[in-house]
Amino acid sequence: MVSIQEKRDCLIFEVSGKWYGVSCLLVREIVRLPEILPMEDAPHFVAGVINLRGHVVSVVDLNLRMGRHAPRDYALTDFIVVVEWRGTPVGIIVNDVREVRELLPGDVEPCPAFAEHETHRYRHVTEVAKVGGEMVMLLDPEHLLHGVPREEDTPAEHGEAVPEILTECRRFNPGASDRERALFHARAQRLMRSPEAADEADSLPLAVVRLHGENFGVNLAQVQGFAHLRQVTPIPCCPDHVAGSMNLRGDILTLVDLSRILHLNADPKSRPAKVMVARIDHLTVGVLVHDVVDVIHRRPDLLAKAPVGGSGPRQEHLSGAVPHGDAGHESMLGILNLEALLQSQELLVHETV
């Protein structure tokens, strides 16, 4: 276990309104929740398995692992955080991925001591971190993932007694609509594909964000993280595209609304809910977005010239486009040229107080 005297990076995510963290050294990748194949003989807290590029990966439902009732249905907006445990990838279902945070020794405290007969209820959480005024429970993978079947295991080797309340026949998302089932299935099909001949390290990582009903790609190298939009403080003598500022973990972040520059049809009733923290050279700003849709990788040879025209984004606003979407429903995803956008003359403030 990592000493609380050492600083470390942790991935922070949300499950059922609670914040949890796990060491970034364990995180292998993050994917949108696909269709999961339930396994009748698996421990009750294992939602099932997925095929991750040819490897069978067990997927843990953290609610069940913590002794809570799991929501009957999962959402298309959920994620799977794939961690490496004892050389084996294991997935954890989460509702939202918040950020990667460097935790300093003063940010972390060990869990309070409980009576000996109660300690088993808290073995999955070893420490508690204070992050931006919130409490984040840090998970201990040794306890959390104990009993999770590995690819080479047989059910008899890892079986656990299943609580009587959970002995009903398992089925993935029984209340999902036909459209939702098709999307979950399409995601599972994509995850099954073997890596392309091109080295994945050479592929272009993109965050897919939604702005006023339109999806755009953003180079992940320019993204420091995402945060929920909180109290916004107006800034005097600024144009409309400067939405104000926000306190983000003690730093004052200027918020920029790109909808006008991108010539998007902004619905005044549709307000952005998240902030994409972008850094270009020495400039760090918060870009307002409605949602974070996906994280994808695309080979450089798939990059095409961005189609522009009409009242949409101009050529200088986009650095290219790549295919995006499910099989049979693919479209070209425009990639925002953040460097050009944030240096645009349209963003200059000419007024003074």
Short note summarizing the structure:
By secondary structure, the protein is mainly beta. Helix content is 9%, strand content 40%.
Q: For the residues shown, what is the average pLDDT?
A: 78
Strand segment count: 21
Q: Architecture of the largest domain, according to CATH?
A: Beta Barrel
> How would you name the CATH homologous superfamily of the largest domain?
CheA-289, Domain 4
Task: List low-pLDDT spans.
Answer: 152-169
Number of helices: 5
- Could you name the CATH topology of the largest domain? OB fold (Dihydrolipoamide Acetyltransferase, E2P)
Looking at this protein, list some descriptive labels.
353 residues, mainly beta, OB fold (Dihydrolipoamide Acetyltransferase, E2P), 2 domains, 6-stranded mixed β-sheet, 9% helix, globular
Could you outline the blueprint of secondary structure elements for this entry?
Blueprint lengths: L7 E8 L2 E6 L3 E6 L13 E7 L2 E7 H4 L13 E7 L2 E7 L1 E8 L4 E3 L14 E7 L2 E6 L1 H4 L10 H4 L19 H15 L11 E8 L2 E6 L3 E6 L13 E7 L2 E6 L17 E7 L2 E7 L1 E8 L19 E7 L6 E6 L1 H5 L11
Parallel strand pairs: 2-11, 5-7, 16-18
Antiparallel strand pairs: 1-2, 1-8, 3-6, 4-5, 6-7, 9-10, 10-11, 12-13, 12-19, 14-17, 15-16, 17-18, 20-21
